[in-house]
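Quick one:
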Amino acid sequence: MSDTNETWMPAETPLPMRAQAFSRRPDEARRTIPRWRLGAIAWRVGAFGPPLLITLSLIYGIVQWFGSGGFTLQEGIVVTLVGLTFVWISLSVSAVCIAALKLWLGRGRESDAPRAAQRVALLVPVYNECPWDVLGNVAAMRRELARGRKRDDYAFFILSDTRDPEIAAEEERAVAQLRQEAGEIPVHYRRRTENTDKKVGNINDWIARWGANWDAMVVLDADSLMTGAAIRHLSDALARDPDAGLIQTFPVLISAETLFGRMQQFATSVYGWLLAEGLALWSGSEGNYWGHNAIIRTKAFADSAQLPYLRGRGGKNELILSHDFVEAGMLRRAGWAVRFLPRAGGSFEETPSSLIDFVLRDRRWCQGNLQHLRLLTARGFHPISRFHMLQGAFAYLLSPAWFVLLVIWSAILPMTQAPVSYFHASNPLYPVWPQMSEMNGVWFLVFIYFMLLLPKVAAAALLFFSKGVARLYGGAGRFALTTLFEIALAIIYAPILMVQQTAAVVRAALGRPNPWAPQQRGNTSYSWSTLIRFHWLETILGVVMVTGMATGVLSAWLAPVAVSLILAVPLSRLSSVRVADSSLKPLRLDTPLSLREPRVQTHARAERARLHALLKAPAPGSIAAE
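Output:
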């Protein structure tokens, strides 16, 4: 069957995609970029050296402590898990440190060399998304691009995989409205009748049929929003760097109004930028791709990044779900640079508004990222590209590792010390918690919390002491209180996310796939019955932990984790509460972008409302219209 609305597409200009394989290197690879460069090596030594040394020192200290009373199997498991988990924590700390060092040394100058004009396609893949939200964003970006300089030619392509007929009809009406409005930047649309290979197949279909006429493509998500300046910046960066195959921006979260959404938005604004700076430094030309808000050289992608299938259970072909990391690695193994621009600015996306929505999205990402473990031995990948894939998988594997580590550590502590009695016969209803001196090993917990919070504290401190920055967050006092509030929330919600990610890993390992459904966007809330069904596991684990502590089987320092798990249901309910208009300003978790909304976001909101009114208005001549 042919696709629908091909009359709204330009004439086809086919660009064949070259078949790839993980079992062999590309037949033709560019060799203009050295595999290793001195500057990149220096930053990587600074990023990876300290975490390895600190982790080895920590392991040595724990082994010495355990060894004084004999080394058991449980203690061996603890040492192994400490090594696996702590090296990733300390990597974040070292990334923050080298980013701070680079900021102190000063930023490099960007090239202003002349460059040729380009044809840039802005691709918006959609699947059963809210039409007025998606097309409202497109209308706002189109308006932004029309305001600036006209060096490059741009066009939007709405690439629909929508299966719902009602949504598809609304998509067509919204696109028709934009196409009939005057504008220098065209908007094209096609809907595939078959959702072959999901988003990967959607993009590849566009490249194979229309890609030859476009030098580059900016891949956007359904909730992506970029300023005209940001899009032009990406175009300039690609045009001036003939070695670059892909350039990724650092998207900043916007539009959140609920507690959980604002918590993520504030964290990205305050802490994420410094981690992004560190990532850009140690990744160099071997950067990563996050699937959206990035510009890609079209021919480079066609020549080197068509994804092969994985061999799945029963010998069946299996689609790579988290395709972006792998496509970046394939571009780099073909000799193209993959770069990261952490300071481009003007690149935005939205975030799930509740804990449940976040977890549902995370389950899908978990399934895709764990597939990357099967690609670590593929031929031709650069070691840093392999590390990106390993890091993506470990982002989820760390949760079961942390969970097992916490349980074993808290269980063996009472066995390696004198028994601790929490209840005395003279007053059996009142627990007597052990003193710090009785809780040998609490230093470990304190040290872990210190390392987990250090990147947040360091980034917040840099902002706080940067002239004029705290004022952008509503003032120094408000910024400090909001930072403390976000850190407290992160600590409270972390155990719940740990259990949910552990369950997602187990589900993926058992071959129970999570449905790849559209992300819930906008504010959502759930009934108490839904919350109980969703969080029953955390609640039961919390009760078991408290019982274990009360009977002396588990160490009391597990109490903060247990309390969060027991309260998972009300905390999940709290996560969807709207805080954007709270009378207590620190509870709003405001950022500069929520206090002073970007112009493109204001335009997008207005365009969404306009298109929503248009699509929901009764059709002319209908009974409702009369």
